[in-house]
TrEMBL record:
Biased composition, class Low complexity, residue ranges: 1-14
Single GO term (MF): peptidyl-prolyl cis-trans isomerase activity
Catalytic activity from the UniProt record: [protein]-peptidylproline (omega=180) = [protein]-peptidylproline (omega=0)
Keyword annotations of the record: Isomerase, Rotamase
Span of the signal peptide: none
Record-given protein name: Peptidyl-prolyl cis-trans isomerase
Segments for region (Disordered): 1-90
Gene Ontology CC annotation, any one: cytosol
Job description of the protein: Prolyl cis/trans isomerase with specificity for phospho-Ser-Pro bonds.
Keyword Magnesium found: no
Length: 178
C-alpha cells in the first residue's frame, strides 16, 4: 500500500520542483565574460543583427578570440602518429616521405585553387585526419588549442582563404579559414 498515490491522502510537499537552469543564461554569461565584447558592441549586436556584422567580426583574424577552419592533413614517416582512419596500420604513412606528402598536398591545393575540385570533397577523400568525415571541418577553436604552426597559419588567413603547406608534428596540412 502506497499513500502517495491514494486520492484521499495529502502529501507534505505541494510546491512543484524548481525549473532546471536555462541554457540561454549560460550562453549569455559566456558572452558577458568575453573580453573583446563592449557594452556598445553588445548593444549594436542586440539591435542590429546583420550577417555583415558577423562576417566582419569573423574576418578580422587578429581580433577574433576563436576561428573556424577546415584542413587536409597528409601524414608521413615523420608524423608523430603513423596511423589514420584510412591507414589504421600506418603502412602507407610509414612509407611516405615528407617530400612525397608535400607534393601530393601541393597538387591537391592546385586543384582546389583552380576550381577543379572542392575543398570539402578532397578533404573527405584524402585527409588523414578524422575530420575528413566532415569535409575537413575542425569547428571553432581558440589560441593554444592547436599546434603553434597550425594556429599561426589559421589566424593569419582571412575567411575563405587557403594556406600554403603548413608543417606540424602531425604531418603537412593545407588549411581553409571558414
Amino acid at each position: 500500500y502506497s499513500p502517495i498515490n491514494h486520492p484521499n491522502t495529502t502529501t507534505a510537499t505541494t510546491e512543484p520542483p524548481p525549473p532546471p537552469p536555462k541554457p540561454a543564461t549560460i550562453e549569455s554569461d559566456r558572452k558577458r565574460k568575453d573580453p573583446s565584447a563592449t557594452a556598445a558592441g553588445d548593444h549594436h549586436k542586440t539591435h542590429h543583427k546583420h550577417r555583415h556584422d558577423k562576417k566582419t567580426k569573423m574576418s578580422s583574424s587578429s581580433s577574433s578570440d576563436k576561428v573556424r577552419a577546415s584542413h587536409i592533413l597528409i601524414k608521413h614517416e615523420g608524423s608523430r602518429r603513423k596511423a589514420s582512419w584510412k591507414d589504421p596500420e600506418g603502412r602507407i604513412i610509414t612509407n611516405t616521405t615528407r617530400d612525397a606528402a608535400v607534393s601530393q598536398l601541393k597538387a591537391i591545393r592546385d586543384d582546389i585553387v583552380s576550381g577543379k575540385a572542392k575543398f570539402e570533397d578532397v578533404a573527405s577523400r584524402f585527409s588523414d585526419c578524422s575530420s575528413a568525415k566532415r569535409g575537413g571541418d575542425l569547428g571553432s577553436f581558440g589560441r593554444k588549442q592547436m599546434q603553434k604552426p597550425f594556429e599561426d597559419a589559421t589566424y593569419a588567413l582571412k575567411v575563405g582563404e587557403i594556406s600554403d603547406i603548413v608543417d606540424t608534428d602531425s604531418g603537412v596540412h593545407i588549411i581553409k579559414r571558414t
